[in-house]
Amino acid sequence: MSLREVIEALPKVELHVHLEGSIQPATLLRLAERNKCELPAKDVAGLREWFQFKDFPHFVDVYVAASKCIKTPSDLELIAEEFAREQLRQNILYTEANYTAKTIHRYAGIPWDEQLDALNRGFAKVSDTKVQLIIDIVREFPQGEGEEIAQWCIEGRDRGVAAIGLSGFEGQTPVSRHAHAYKVAKEAGLNCSAHSGETGGAPAIREALDVALADRIGHGIRCLEDPKLVQELRDRQIHLEVNPTSNVCIGVVPSLAEHPFPRLLDEGLSVSINSDDPPLFSTTLTEEWIRCAEEFELSTDILYSLCLGAADRAFLPDAEKADLKRRILAGWQL
User: Of the residues 9, 106, 213, 272, which has the maximum number of CB atoms within 10 A of its CB?
Assistant: First the structure.
């Protein structure tokens, strides 16, 4: 079997992918047409040209424009079902998907309970893969909205919400604005996965750890700028959800060949490979595995270790985590 065939067949886990950023271009066009939303392109080719990002602000503009095309609970149910079917197609057994519920509430007016119900209906249509949500606070949101999101996460713990998240522009708005929200979430037993160390440097990661009380770091590749931080991440086994193609497309690193992923491994850090916003970056989790395996000469044994490590760092109860690991082991022994 070729490397591609092997990787396609292997069971996988994904810890960093955005639900709204996973809407396929054809579906985005359908949503825009039926909801009378203006996009700068009328066909898939035009959207792909729009997805050639100049910088992180350009990416955010695209992301928000796509989110504004979601107007009804049925739209959410559709994108959830299509997302789960794509994860299943890639043999992804378990996914934790980032979702910015407050943006949908702002632009579509869909109440939180209705959003969650619709998403769960969509996920439930694809029974052979499990998807849970990480509901993020955007750094720029007002303090009150952050606290509201924390309550949403607490309310949704038994309905598919795995954790609270942090997103937005690093370094522009202090995470301390939302310190109380994260404290409340942590006291309620929620985990946190925080975007940091992508466009911002090592201090942004420190802020995520100290203020957002992060258990995992989304991206985190710029931790290498601070050896003491690297040591702490290693000692505490803070997991880094790495997204190589995303980092290249946004301009965080010049090319995949120059990506620090091998250095993160050499430092003994806990890391996983993820796709972030696959259609926006012309990738999938399977493609990420293939690209990294080829570029960094990763053996199937290393890929297995990375997959098992992702399962170990998933926000799941111990019994479910153990079952997920058993399924991964069974799949890798075929």
Answer: 272
Tell which wins on pLDDT, 63 or 183: 183
Residues paired with residue 92 on neighbouring β-strands, in sequence order: 12
The residue type at 155: E
Task: Name the catalytic one among 147, 170, 198, 288.
Answer: 198
* C-beta separation of 27 from 82 below 8 A: yes
d(CA 270, CA 315) in angstroms, rounded, equals: 15
Residue 39 CA to residue 66 CA, distance in Å, equals: 8
Q: Note if 258 is an active site residue.
A: no
Q: Where are the domains of the chain?
A: 3-332
What CATH number should be reported for the domain whose range is 3-332? 3.20.20.140
Task: For residue 248, give both structure tokens.
Answer: 């290249």
For the entire predicted model, the pTM comes to 0.95
Query: Which residue shows structure tokens 């946004």?
Result: 250
pLDDT of residue 53: 81
Q: What 8-state DSSP symbol labels residue 55?
A: S
**Residue that has been written with the tokens 């996965």 in this structure:** 193
For tokens 């509201």, name the residue.
148
Instruction: Return d(Cα 33, Cα 217) in angstroms, integer.
Output: 36
Contact 184, 147 (CB under 8 A): yes
How far is 311 from 272, CA to CA, in rounded Å?
Answer: 10
Per DSSP (E only), the strands in 24-144 are 92-99, 130-138
* C-beta separation of 331 from 91 below 8 A: yes
DSSP per position, 27-96 = HHHHHHHHTT---S-SSHHHHHHHTS-SSHHHHHHHHHHHHTT--SHHHHHHHHHHHHHHHHHTTEEEEE
What is the Cα–Cα distance from 116 to 10, expressed in whole angstroms?
Answer: 30
pLDDT tens for each residue of 219-257 = 999 999 999 999 999 999 999 999 999 999 999 999 999
Cα–chain center distance at 7? 20
